[in-house]
Amino acid sequence: MNSTQSTSSAAVSSSRRMFTTRELVIGGMFAALLAVISQLSIPMPSGVPITIQILGVALVGSVLGWRLGLFATITYILIGAVGLPVFANFSGGFSKLVGVTGGYIWSWPFLAAWQVFIHTLATKPEILFST
After folding, report:
1. Spatial CB neighbours of 93, under 8 Å, sequence gap ≥ 6
2. For residue 64, how many other CB atoms are within 10 A of its CB?
3. Fewest CB within 10 A of the end CB: N or C in the chain?
4. Which of 114, 129, 27, 36 lies closest to 73 in space, CA to CA?
5. Is the dihedral of CA 60, 23, 84, 103 positive or negative?
6. Phi, psi of 27 (to 5 degrees)
7. Do 43 and 89 form a contact (C-beta atoms < 8 A)?
8. How far apart are CA 12 and CA 8, in angstroms?
9. Model confidence pLDDT, tens digit, residues 37-58
10. Residue 76: which of 88, 64, 67, 87 has the closest Cα?
11. What sign for the dihedral angle of Cα 89, 111, 99, 93?
12. Cα–Cα separations (whole angstroms), residue 85 to 6, 39, 50, 58, 88
């Protein structure tokens, strides 16, 4: 009976794919990369700075794939939400997520996942144009 329980638990754990330690470290490193990239900004009078963060988010999605790309961008957003100054111009806090730039920041996980689809179409166009 014990072997049956261990077999069933192994089947459950393999169907529910968890992050490995390596994937967690890579996701954290790309979240840190997003934090560094966001500091390269040009302040604007409207309150929304010009940054290259969107390039970083697209890079995260292309390099890591949808699953890890989502993890890295959500990790970055959560780190900024708790108050660490990782957003543009060394700002952070929940107020940035509900302020002027909030919608822009909330769209990043979707962009990271969407970038995988775009990258797949660019490398394998026969998926789109198959007859």
Report:
1. 80, 81, 83
2. 22
3. C
4. 27
5. positive
6. -60, -40
7. yes
8. 6
9. 988 888 888 877 888 888 899 8
10. 87
11. negative
12. 45, 10, 17, 21, 8
Place of tokens 């302020």: 99
Structure-block tokens of residue 8: 């069933």
Q: Check whether 106 has a pLDDT greater than 70.
A: yes
Average pLDDT over residues 63-69: 90
Query: DSSP E strands: which ranges in the chain?
Result: 41-42, 50-51
Please name the amino acid found at residue 11: A
Which residues make Cβ contacts (< 8 Å) with residue 52, sequence separation at least 6?
Answer: 37, 40
Give Cα 53 to chain centroid, integer Å: 11
- Which residues partner with 41 through β-bridges? 51
